[in-house]
Amino acid sequence: MPRDYGRLMAELAESYRQHSPKSAQLNERARQVLVDGGNHALRLIDPFPPRVVRASGAYIWDEDGHAILDFWQGHFGNILGHNPPEIGALLAEAFAGGSGLQTGFTDRLQIETAEILCRQTGAERARFTTSGSLATMYAILLARAFTGRNLVMKVSGGWHGAQPWGLKGVSYEPGQGFNHLDSQGLPPALADELLLTRYNDTQMLTDQFRQFGDRLACFIVEPFIGSGGSIPAKREYLRAARQLTARYGTVLILDEVISGFRFRAGDMGALYGVVPDLATFGKIMGGGMPVTAVAGRADILNLSGRAGGSKVKFSGGTYSGHPASLLAAKAMMTYLAEHEQEVYTQLGELGAKARLASEGAFAAEGIYSRCTGHSDELLLGSSMVHLHFPYRPDQPLDCPEDVFDPARCDPTLSEHVLRLALLQEDVHTVHGLGSLSCAHTEADLTRLAEACRCVARRIKPYLALPSV
């Protein structure tokens, strides 16, 4: 049975109000004009989020004057830290020189940015838009048009944005697992157009392709599943996905909004030797600005242009190809390509130390935990870290079902209790911990370990042995 954290969460909420009274007051003001006081559900920590006034490097500063060590880093997008000078200086120069805001015209910058993206990922064509939700939606539209099929396959627990084909199988519900729609307002028939499969389960994937392969328009999958537990795909699984989609004429879409430029200066698929038909990119690629892209095969992407009869209305939106966003994207991708060895070596080392620091801190207080985010068979280093609390040391952590089923792990402790408790130690985490940036230091990881030990001592009295 899941543990009951009601009393602990109430105590944490009250102490947090005392810790951050100005953010608490601003939250009440925000709730008068904004739904729940903000614009993104994951930012709206219960009972209220810190209200940020400044961000630099590994830290954010809130209205109450706290210097908060941040491991979310702009929804995992700030690989160089908050407001890196490599990007900020260029934007300031552009604005001062009379460029950077929307013009509605094309320019040289769009070409140069697309050239870098295609070169670093092996894509034949690219088209920019402004959010990961739009990028994955357009990719699926292209796949359905290209194949003439309707059925879309995705992974249980995978998040592909707030768009219709992404809103099934996202959250785990007792008694249902992931097999349900995650939003009202969707067409009821949509549930029948979305087929769920289990991450890293090659046999299940093979069986489903045998049954549904000639009806599948696309299989959209993250090579590194983010909100589903920070778990990398197994080599045999992703290669099987490529082989099966090719055999059945299904479009393989790699959602690399999180993984793109996170593990190398380009796509993560290349580490597996897997070339998708389409891929989506965002977050790190944008250098802190709102830009995403769909990239891949010319014959599929051309369906949105004159060569393909403009059959798919992938216009991208008013702010697609926004000058400031593309300037930041060009600068970030160029920087990462030119400093690839040092950046990813540093990030890998920091990630490994963060895993040791957090696991070791809880172990020192007698609480067993285990981090995902790395792969011994593939990733020499990983800057993604998700701390889980399995009930048994031999519990596999290979798919979202492993980490979100309350009979196997304690997701409430990882996702909610830990976040609120650490925030009162002036450490901000999300999804069990988050991501490292080049701005983090070993001193920051020492601070993380100390904070985790404080939290462990605080929550330990509430950890009764569960019935599993």
Would you kindly provide a written description of the structure presented here, covering whatever features stand out?
This protein is of the alpha/beta class and 468 residues long. The chain has 2 domains: 6-83 and 340-462, Aspartate Aminotransferase, domain 1 (Alpha-Beta Complex); 87-338, Aspartate Aminotransferase, domain 2 (3-Layer(aba) Sandwich), CATH 3.40.640. It has helices at 6-19, 21-30, 73-76, 85-96, 108-121, 132-147, 190-193, 202-212, 235-248, 269-272, 298-301, 323-338, 340-364, 400-404, 411-423, 442-459, and strands at 52-56, 59-62, 67-70, 125-129, 151-155, 194-197, 216-221, 224-225, 231-232, 251-256, 278-281, 292-296, 370-372, 384-388, 427-428, 434-435. The strands form 4 sheets. It has a 7-stranded mixed β-sheet with strand order 4-12-11-10-7-5-6, sandwiched between helices. Strands 1-2-3-15 form a 4-stranded mixed β-sheet. Helix 4 packs antiparallel against helix 12 (323-338) and helix 13 (340-364) runs parallel beside helix 16 (442-459). The model has no long low-confidence stretch (mean pLDDT 96).
